[in-house]
Amino acid sequence: MFMIDLLCICMPREITRALKAASSCVLPSLMVLMVLMVPMVSLHAQVTPSNSPTSQAKSAIPYPQDFWFTHHYFEKVGDEESLPINIVTSLAQDSTGFLWVGTQSGLVRFDGYRFEKFSHSNRLPYSLPDDYVRSIVPGRDGKLWVAGYGGKIAVYDPHFKHFKELPLSPELTDETLVGRFIGMATDSQGGLWVAAEQLGLAYLPPDGGKLRRYTPGPGPGLHLNHQRIRSLYVDKSDHLWIGTFSGLLHLAPGQTQLESVASDPQVKDSLAEHGISSIYEASDGKLWLGLTRDGAAWLDPRTRQLHRIMLDNAQGNVL
After folding, report:
1. Closest among 199, 156, 149, 191 to 174, alpha carbons compared
2. Are the CB atoms for 231 and 242 separated by under 8 Å?
3. How far is 289 from 298, CA to CA, in rounded Å?
4. CA–CA dist 196, 147 (Å, integer)
5. Neighbours of 193 (CB within 10 A)
6. Residue boundaries of the structural domains of the chain
7. Contact 74, 33 (CB under 8 A)
8. Among positive and negative, which fits the CA dihedral 270, 6, 46, 281?
9. How many angstroms separate the CA atoms of 109 and 101, rounded?
10. pLDDT tens for residues 129-152?
11. What is the pTM of this model?
12. Is the pLDDT confidence value at 96 over 50?
């Protein structure tokens, strides 16, 4: 069984096993690339002992205050013919268990045995509109949202087995989606949050109505305060979490004011000086954050308590 939580790239095996046991993101024989940590004598992991009360609790995840990682190894599934290009830009698992792999030359679906490729064709009106896949997000209605690097969004319908490009024209939206896509996230109602370099942040309602755009800058309503977005995530309670180049932002359901979380530059070890490249919610509600520098962190959304994961880079081999 494998997990596709990208944050596992910087976890020791003990933490990976505990997180795997406590989360629902488990795939039977489904994997493209996974990075695991090799437990060595030199690995200083302060992990809860297996016979402790905490480790024996149901769905318990040991959360050490500090631990360090030093050794890594890679496991690769597939061969050079499996992917159209050996550069993976995004990964996602849909509700039926398929693993979707975005690349710079098309989209690939993996069922645990075979790779099926999807690409753009001028002769097929329902083909993938953009071969450079930047982001993949499974919808909660069974459909798959796909964003291309050039500014196109499509939704894949598994029943009809075709892609439909969203008609994001000036007549439908505040303005067209231009610029390179950064990420997408869906809420429980079927709405779609989108972030792009020139667009900033936007929300497409589930009824396909008018796109609401939220641009960087000060003023009333929802603004990003000039912060550039790195990642998006909607948790189980429909709270939107935005990873930026300088910390974490939060938007509660029904609110229009963004909240800066654990990102005060005056506070030591805050997220203010760290870009957040990935966000994932564990089964216990805690958020795991992948940082662009100095490893990772986890956050308790209720208490706003942040725990940094320390990295020992003495060997010069930390990912």
Report:
1. 199
2. yes
3. 6
4. 10
5. 21
6. 81-215
7. yes
8. positive
9. 6
10. 999 998 899 987 788 999 888 778
11. 0.67
12. yes
